[in-house]
């Protein structure tokens, strides 16, 4: 990609070479007893094909929905216990994602300027497929990063509620990715 700091080639990414996280935020009258969560996706893989012509570049990703691990519980009144972490994982698996595979396939990769790419494609999760646009920053060292907001309800996911509906997970969650690809 002319002007971008990433060398053309095919790159394979996963938890050993990059970071993929889900960030959730709480709301509702019971929000003080809950936590905003940072969840690591621990089993995933991506193939990134970078071409000199952005139109020929592509990104494919698959993730195991059962591999989300609680990295942090932020802004809660008490620290998360192991029991809390296990309950969160169980709720994600049984009530939110229901074990359905997560897949992304790009339809276009556009160079906005020297430091920004926009990847558009289809994201399949929880049994539904919807279009997604992922703006990504690229620095001179080949580090690629971005945060993509997603409304759970667009995929038919009902945001988690606890304490008889007083504690809610906000509909919009964020998917954050960070990787380093070889420089040009």
Description of the molecule:
Helix content is 8%, strand content 52%. It has 184 residues and is mostly beta strands. The chain has one domain: Lipid/polyisoprenoid-binding, YceI-like (Lipocalin), CATH 2.40.128. The strands form two sheets. Strands 1-5-6-8-9-10-11-14-2-4-7 form an eleven-stranded antiparallel β-sheet, covered by helices on one side. The protein has a three-stranded antiparallel β-sheet with strand order 3-13-12, with no helix packed on it. The longest helix is centred in the middle third of the chain and has 15 residues, at 82-96. The termini are close together. The model has no long low-confidence stretch (mean pLDDT 87).
Characteristic key phrases:
single chain; Lipocalin; 14 strands; 3-stranded antiparallel β-sheet; mainly beta
CATH architecture verdict: Beta Barrel
Element pattern in H and E: EEEEEEEHEEEEEEE
Relative helix content = under 10%
Mean pLDDT: 87
Instruction: Give the total of domains.
Output: 1
Shape: elongated
Structural class: mainly beta
Short account of what is shown:
The chain is mainly beta and 184 residues long. 8% of the residues lie in helices and 52% in strands. It has one helix at 82-96; strands spanning 9-13, 18-24, 26-27, 36-41, 44-50, 58-63, 68-74, 102-113, 116-125, 128-138, 143-151, 161-162, 167-169, 172-180.
């Amino acid at each position: 990609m002319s002007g971008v700091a990433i060398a053309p080639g095919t790159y394979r990414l996963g938890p050993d070479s990059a970071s993929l996280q889900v960030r959730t935020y709480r709301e509702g009258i019971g929000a003080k007893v809950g936590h905003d969560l940072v969840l690591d996706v621990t089993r995933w893989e991506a193939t990134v094909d970078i071409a000199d012509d952005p139109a020929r570049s592509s990104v494919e990703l698959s993730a195991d929905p059962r591999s989300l691990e609680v990295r942090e519980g932020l802004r809660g009144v008490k620290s998360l216990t192991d029991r809390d972490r296990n309950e969160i994982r169980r709720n994600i698996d049984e009530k939110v994602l229901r074990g359905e595979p997560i897949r992304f396939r790009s339809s276009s990769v556009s160079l906005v300027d020297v430091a920004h790419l926009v990847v558009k494609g289809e994201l399949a999760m929880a049994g539904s497929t919807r279009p997604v646009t992922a703006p990504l920053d690229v620095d001179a060292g080949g580090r690629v990063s971005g945060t993509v907001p997603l409304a759970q309800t667009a995929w038919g996911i009902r945001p988690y509620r606890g304490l008889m509906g007083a504690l809610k997970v906000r509909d919009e969650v964020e998917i954050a990715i960070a990787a380093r690809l070889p420089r040009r």
